[in-house]
Amino acid sequence: xxxxxxxxxxxxPFVSDRAKKTLDLVEExxxxxxxxxxxxxxxxxxxxEKRWKTNPAAMEELKVKARKIGLxxxxxxxxxxxxxxxxxxxxxxxxxxxxxxxxxxxEATNNAAPDTGNMEVFAKYGNDQQKAQWLSPLLExxxxxxxxxxxxxxxxxxxxxxxLDIRREGNEYVLNGSKWWSSGAGDPRCQIYLVxxxxxxxxxxxxxxxxxxxxxxxxxxxxxxxxxxxxxxxxAPHGHGHITFENVRVxxxxxxxxxxxxxEIIQGRLGPGRIHHAMRTIGAAERAVDWLIARIxxxxxxxxxxxLSSHGVILEWLAKSRIEIDSARLIVLNAAIKIDQGNAKFAxxxxxxxKVLVPQIALSVIDRAVQAYGAAGVSQDTxxxxxxxxxxxxxxxxxxxxxHLQQLGKRENKxxxxxxxxxxxxxREQSDKNLTANGFPKTKSSL
Length: 447
Ligand SMILES: Cc1cc2nc3c(=O)[nH]c(=O)nc-3n(C[C@H](O)[C@H](O)[C@H](O)COP(=O)(O)OP(=O)(O)OC[C@H]3O[C@@H](n4cnc5c(N)ncnc54)[C@H](O)[C@@H]3O)c2cc1C
What we know:
The chain is α+β, with helices and mostly antiparallel strands. Helices cover 48% and strands 13% of the residues. The N and C termini lie far apart (54 Å).
């Protein structure tokens, strides 16, 4: 059955025929071109320092193939941008699932984070000059970019803590401070950093102190000290940089949107991006299920005389994984549909639900597949260990689970408490009336 035939019935009415055709092309491209190219991509990256200086030829070849069949920039939603391929969030969400099955597919189709979020920032908030200088080459896949918010000295899940200083001096801004987890900064093609810092640390409104400025990667005073690892993986050539800024000077025209508008920018940036991550994560979970099915049907491996597919507990893992993935997909598609019907702000609750739920489910699914492979599951011989490490970071990146849960809980309580308390009190009263009217004593409950 093709990818378009597998679209959940709930989402079908929101998907055009053109998107369905593209979805089938994405599936074919990922299964037949991207997954078989992964080993070559890794081999071409090589070892040691070379990994930060190489753009594997396999990637450029995939990009040429993807463009030729029209798989390019599908992420920019048609309701809000004219520069993309003209799909809605739900249509692209379905495609992102397949892209998430392969670690090279998103970049091959120019739908890779953090460039996607950064391109949205340029398209939404950039002026004409910023768009010409940075958005155009990013849309063409000629350069890469990084978004620098997190800092080593503070708790960055609360972005009001950000400290990097952006001081205005004449017709320049001067930046001082440090950043880490700057994803993408390791790539030799990464030419532009979108840097969040404080232009007005004394502003009484803590959400008006921050701004985002554009800093070309080769600006004097910018130093990349090291690349951080994720459970031992270096994620080359992309990487996660630890970077300092020492009297880094940029012109006033480097300011995005205006001083004090940093929060607005990060909020606008992260909504759709979280849905893209969530759908790619579903794809990663589906890949783990593919591997699980292959392992439990491997005739050479028969613990205690039977293939794993004859052991009840293993079939239960497979069934649970299917239930979890299919329900998680509905949560994400629901959020994407809600964004399409309004915007990311309109769908805050649904986006947060997907952001928290999907990585947790995917981790359980991947972990079951790891277990089914025994020792091989934690090795480099399956993609499972790498998938697990990658997905585990999503419970922290773009805001830890706890922050989203706290906001969800607060919102749920605030919006419902009055009505729920009133309704339950009324029901208790009616219940007592029913009891006394029929000759029974009232309940003694104090609730
Ligand atoms: C692979 C990866 C890629 C990343 N890429 C980027 C990037 O490109 N650019 C960028 O700027 N950043 C990036 N980050 C950083 C990421 O966004 C931050 O790590 C995240 O926002 C959390 O900030 P922190 O690490 O400072 O943790 P802290 O803010 O110190 O939080 C630590 C822990 O405290 C707990 N906590 C926090 N708030 C609450 C609360 N309200 N209630 C209960 N518990 C709470 C949570 O368990 C949390 O994990 C990346 C991170 C990873 C792992």
